[in-house]
Hints:
Structural class: alpha+beta
Low-confidence stretches: none
Strand content: 15-25%
Distance between the termini: 56 Å
Shape: globular
Helix content: 25-40%
Mean pLDDT: 91
Amino acid sequence: MSLVIERLAGQPVACRVVLEDLAATARLAGWLSTWFGPRDTITLTGDLGAGKTEFARALIRAFAEDATVDVPSPTFPILISYDFPRGRVVHADLYRILEADELDELGWDELRENALLLVEWPDRAEERLPADRLDVELFHAAGTDYGAGLGPEARIAILTGHGSVGARLDRFQIADSLIEQSGFATAERVFLQGDASSRSYTRLVMPGRSAILMNAPRQPDGPPLRRGLPYSQLVHLAEDVKPFVAMDRALLAQGFSAPLLYSADLDTGLLVLEDLGREGIVAGAPPAPVPERYHAAMEVLAALHTRNLPRTLNVAPRVERALPIYDAAAMLTEIDLMLDWYLPARGIRLDGVVREEFHLLWRSALNPVLAEPATWVLRDYHSPNLIWLPGREGLRRVGLIDFQDAVMGPAAYDVVSLAQDARVDVPEDLELQLVGHYVKLRREADPTFDVRGFARSYALMGAQRASKILGIFTRLNDRDGKPHYLRHLSRIRRHLARCLSHQDLGSLRMWYEAVLPSRDFAA
């Protein structure tokens, strides 16, 4: 399926797609279902019999990931709503709407809240359509310049992006070109649930092989937080896809299992990557660590941390990236998320004096850790981002993804990320085994490895990470409407309490005990 961009002066971006049969129509609908979701609107236009309802039916089933979902025509009820794991879909047919007031009776303005809205006969809504929307116009190919040699089922689809959707439609066409270059033009597109970021992923499935489309548009800077810089720059988060590509190539060069890059458009942030599979290092329901796999993941870190790793990485010919330093300023900015989000959610607000004391204590505690030799810190080295590859050997059994925010910093950070997983209960005895295994491997490689110093760094980085995540997960609920992250808070509080019980962190522990409710700080 090949898309042709038609740029019309002063008009929205438009794509013309030739659909040879109903199967092609379903493929286009399925792909659109991976690019559009809750809070989006897709209008369907065309004459009677052009295939609008069939197109909507295919899109809804693809969104549901269930080809058996019953999708009747909404002509009589006007609205039909569906609730799927990925979100709500509202299918509207406005053919019988005669007056605009009837839309108010339907609750029209509220329909798009947390729902994908599909609208047939959108002209009945007049000016009530959102400015940002996709229009899909369908008509028979017969009698057009594109209909020669095609059967009676052939259709032409004109996709028009209104408002901000025009840029998304542009990306849609670029992605199609990359997928074709990678040899996956005929692949089934399957939406993958993403992470807490704005990136999205689509699995491209063909017989015997698959790939991943990463859609990572450059993120606009947020409001200035300090020194005129937004949060993302203060803590060195990737703002485009180039840091991912740089670290991906660097990990592959070191012999680790990062995904191969099949094709890329670095400017738009679209990548087609090797699919490392679906098997993780946890199993069961609820997910629990598989000890063998966690040990293998810890061996990857031990091997990585014994190497002399470069700070400057290659992105593309004559394009390099220097990994940022994970310094005290970045770590303190992250920890402040606990003060700014988690504590207020618990009814606790601090004055400037108490905050300054907090910063002084943390700066003092961080000084010895930041004086250690720096290494690659992948930063999100935990179960959601580690793939188990049983067909490979040694260190290559652990597949690595989601490392675009990598920095140069303390080795202990990634160790504690794995052993004190924020989303999975790692039993304390397994945690001790994992850390002991790491220390053993480090000492075998370097008999001078400072075990006591590492133990302090492990505890401090664990406290830093737990404090940060308490803030992040609260923010995801309060600001972004993602309450499912709250179920992890009790686990993270336990991690925080245990880390601050280290004998060298007494001053920090006293501050936390004085500020946090005792029930929040119980190990």
